[in-house]
Specification:
By secondary structure, the protein is mostly helical. It is built from 8 helices and no strands. The longest helix is centred in the middle third of the chain and has 31 residues, at 126-156. It starts with a helix and ends in a 17-residue tail after the last helix.
Length: 232
């Protein structure tokens, strides 16, 4: 059962997500970062929906579990496309956006197929297991794609401060959630003692994005020597 501190963190995370969208609108960056804003709006809607289902059906109800897992899968897919949109920003001058989008759709389809193949032998609750497996696998795919994107940023010596901060925060976010999924699979008893970290991780991402949008403009550049040197 959730306590006052849990609800406080929950509401704080939702407020920060709303703040990201408002910061983007204020800085006239909503359209440019549409998929990131879409993820934040969906996350706010999911938080409100989870709260209403929780109040109506209770923490241990099947309704809440179904709503949680399916909304989490939807949010993970939205964040995945938000990550892909950052690839488009990085490579926008090369004119390869359509290839990036095609690769993203194929990778998402392959991940969904793999997730279904893993749970297809389950005798019950196959759709719930599929939603959980898809979210878990997409977090690991997102982790790999984020580090690959960071490698491209270093290689191309990208200096746009806002893009760099968004990618770095995504790397930390995906790493943290991938670690929690790994712990829950390998040692469920240990996860039961650290599950409270997940809401805190969820607050960190919108906080970092709000800072990036309100404090950094699209023209803000980093000094080249602030990036890790890449051997030629």
């Amino acid at each position: 059962m959730l306590g006052p501190a849990d609800y406080l963190i929950w509401f704080l995370g939702t407020a920060l997500e709303v703040g990201v969208v408002l910061c983007c609108i204020y800085r006239k960056s909503f359209k440019r970062y549409f998929f990131l804003n879409l993820y934040m709006l969906l996350s706010v809607a999911a938080s409100v929906g989870r709260f209403l289902v929780l109040r109506h059906a209770g923490w241990d109800s099947l309704e809440y579990r179904y709503f949680y897992f399916f909304s989490d899968a939807l949010l993970t897919i939205a964040l995945y496309f938000g990550l892909i949109s950052l690839y488009s920003h990085l490579f926008e001058e090369l004119g390869v956006e359509k290839y990036v989008r095609l690769g993203a759709v194929l990778l998402l389809g392959g991940t969904a197929w793999f997730s279904y193949a893993v749970v297809s032998q389950s005798s019950a609750k196959i759709f719930t297991h599929f939603a959980y497996e898809l979210s878990q696998n997409l977090y690991f795919v997102g982790l790999i794609l984020t580090y690959l994107l960071w490698a491209f940023i270093l290689k191309l010596r990208e200096t746009r401060a806002r893009l760099v901060q968004i990618v770095l925060s995504l790397g930390i976010y995906f790493s943290a959630y991938a670690a929690t999924y790994a712990i829950s699979n390998l040692n469920p008893s240990l996860y039961s003692h650290i599950w409270f970290l997940s809401p805190l991780i969820g607050c960190a991402l919108p906080l970092a994005w709000a800072h990036a949008f309100i404090r950094l403009s699209e023209e803000t550049r980093l000094a080249p020597n602030n990036l890790v040197a890449v051997p030629r």
